[in-house]
Design brief:
Blueprint lengths: L3 H4 L2 H66 L7 H14 L4 E8 L4 E5 L9 H4 L4 H4 L9 E3 L4 E3 L2 E11 L2 E8 L7 E3 L3 E6 L11 H7 L2 H9 L3 E5 L3 E7 L6 E7 H4 L1 H47 L14 H72 L5 H29 L8 E4 H11 L6 E4 L4 E4 L1 H19 L4 E6 L4 E5 L27 H11 L3 E5 L7 E5 L4 H8 L4 H7 L1
């Protein structure tokens, strides 16, 4: 992706890297500025919403409390009592009720007369004479809020704003509870920048506020959004942010408002600080980059020029420097390298000459091994075949009375078999030790069973406990199994049981004999080592040679608690065994496709 002329010049790389860092810092600065602006504005809006919500909850809880008290007083009204009894009851209810209750009135709506009141001047008076704004809640159908209606705005009693709660006693009787708003009255201010008002659904102030201010706060759209969006909606204009929070149990809304300049003032200050920091960082980075470039790129370019001269064959280049830093040490390292280069070249030439001599000697040895193998396979097998023929001829000429001669003939024939086996073992060692080049995939258990059938297994038993498909040279592994099986039969006996099973990364061959003595463990795979009178000492050497030709490891496990266990490891990865044991096959995959 990077142009070649840039890749070939450190100065351009440094400049490109510096430019990328500058751009990155600029992008980070812009992103940080936007995020900080958004976070601060979100926090300010959250503050506004929290203020409106707390005010709405507070007023809602107060309204619900007054409704509960109104219902309770209504339920306990004495039936058929006269004005004196009702007045006494209302006085007691006022004394035992909330401190905000100003007065209680028992009204007959049919005659529009106050039958009883905690204010004696109201008792017996008509509603027109007492002149109180109870008409709104009095005319309610009382179908909601458990039969208690609330006036849609406050009015003044004894110089304080109050709200009337009206409950239905009977078809023509009502109980009016006048309660002071107290701490809920008026406009609340938070930190001097957030104002909170109470509005009814007509857009009027529940507590008196200026008509012009009420007009700017009222918004039918905001009211409906406050009800539909979990009781809250926020509206932002050019100069003002308002949050509307519906008050449960009423048609009122708490409106918190703040000037955008005041509400987001911190955002502008922090944003300017971020811009200043980013600009300072960019300027500092450019200055540092210029200084570092002059102190690193220039001397490195000079060093590159001088190393090119060394590469062209000139070893008298001046690499001296007075610098003590890393670049100075790099100059001195190149100086030392130049001094050692000539010696290394001479050593390399000598090593190459010795390697060539070793290669030629190896080729001569390989040719001698090939000649030796040819001698075994041709020059020895031909006279061996002639001797076998004469033995067979001699056997046919012996009659049944010459058993002593027949016994000698069998021994000669056995000696021929012995010679043939030794030839096979030696050929295996000379030819099968080569690294496996061409491999195939085959089933381990099938190779073991074939090898078992290839030998004289007498009365012995083969048990394949588990199998897996492995990769290797099948004929060599077949030869290894044959040698291991013969070894078990020769050392344990004709009734031995041989087991083939899997390990985590390979397989094992185990017999049920007495095992291998500890003193034999270190020498068991050595060429010519045997404890049998008829053994050649080549069988286990052949097995180890075949294993190593595959890149496998072969060792004897003396801790199995059974007989001799020969373990082939590094045959496959443990994941391969898990895959082979699963029901999945590539044929299934192709069928699914």
């Amino acid at each position: 992706m990077t142009p070649r002329f840039v890749r070939q010049r450190l100065a351009l790389k440094f400049l490109v890297a510096l430019s990328l860092v500058v751009v990155l810092i600029g992008v980070i600065g812009v992103v940080t500025y936007v995020q900080i602006q958004g976070t601060i504005q979100d926090d300010a809006t959250t503050k506004l919403e929290t203020t409106a919500d707390l005010r709405a909850q507070s007023v809602g809880e107060w309204v619900e409390g007054m409704r509960s008290q109104t219902r309770l007083i209504t339920v306990r009204l004495p039936d058929g009592g006269d004005s004196a009894v009702l007045g006494e009851y209302l006085q007691g209810a006022r004394a035992n009720g909330s401190e905000t209750i100003h007065s209680l009135h028992y009204v007959d709506v049919a005659s529009e007369t106050v039958l009883a009141s905690t204010d004696s001047s109201y008792t017996g008076e008509s509603l027109t004479e007492v002149d109180q704004p109870w008409d709104g809640p009095m005319g309610s159908d009382f179908a909601t809020a458990d039969g208690v209606a609330v006036s849609d705005h406050s009015y003044t009693v004894d110089g304080e704003p109050a709200v009337a709660f009206v409950s239905r006693v009977s078809s023509d009787r009502r109980l009016v509870v006048v309660s002071r708003l107290g701490e809920h009255a008026g406009t609340s201010s938070v930190g001097g920048d957030v104002q909170t008002y109470l509005l009814n659904e007509q857009g009027e102030g529940v507590v008196g506020i200026g008509d012009s201010r009420a007009a700017t706060l009222s918004s039918a759209r905001a009211f409906s959004r406050a009800i539909s969006r979990n009781g809250m909606a926020t509206v932002e204009s050019r100069n003002e942010v308002r949050t509307y929070a519906a008050i449960d149990g009423t048609d009122w809304v708490a409106v918190s408002t703040a000037d955008t300049g005041t509400l987001y003032a911190v955002s502008g200050t922090v944003g300017r600080n971020v811009i200043v920091l980013v600009l300072a960082a960019l300027i500092s980075l450019c200055v540092v980059g210029l200084v570092l470039g002059r102190s690193t790129v220039v001397p490195l370019a000079r060093l590159r020029q001088r190393t090119n001269e060394i590469e062209s064959g000139s070893l008298d280049v001046d690499l001296s420097t007075s610098r003590e830093d890393e670049i100075g040490r790099l100059y001195r390292a190149f100086d030392s390298m130049r001094d050692a280069l000539a010696s290394q070249v001479r050593q390399a030439q000598q090593a190459r000459h010795e390697a060539e001599s070793s290669r030629q000697e190896m080729e001569r040895q390989n040719r001698r091994l090939d000649q030796f193998a040819s001698t075994l396979s041709h020059d020895l097998r031909n006279p061996l075949a002639v001797a076998r023929g004469h033995v067979e001829l001699l056997r046919t000429k012996l009659d049944e009375t010459q058993d002593d001669l027949r016994e000698h003939v069998e021994k000669i024939d056995g000696a021929h078999d012995r010679i043939d086996s030794i030839i096979d073992d030696v050929l295996t060692l000379t030819r099968k030790g080569e690294s496996v080049e061409e491999t195939e995939r085959f089933d381990l258990g099938s190779v073991a069973e074939e090898a078992w059938n290839n030998i004289d297994n007498k009365d012995a038993t083969l048990r394949v406990e588990d199998s897996i498909v492995i990769e290797g040279e099948r004929n060599r592994l077949l030869r290894a199994f044959e040698n291991l099986f013969r070894n078990a039969i020769d050392h344990v006996g004709p009734e031995v049981t041989v087991t083939v099973g899997l390990t985590e990364d390979g397989f094992y061959v185990e017999d049920d004999g007495p095992g291998i003595p500890d003193e034999e463990m270190d020498n068991i795979f050595e060429y010519g080592h045997t404890t049998s009178e008829s053994g050649t000492g080549l069988g286990l050497s052949i097995v180890k040679t075949i294993a190593e030709a595959h890149g496998w490891s072969l060792w004897v496990d003396g801790t199995s608690g059974m007989g001799a266990r020969f373990v082939f490891s590094d045959v496959f990865a443990s994941e391969e065994r898990i895959f082979e044991e699963s029901a999945f096959t590539w044929e299934h995959a192709r069928q699914d496709d």
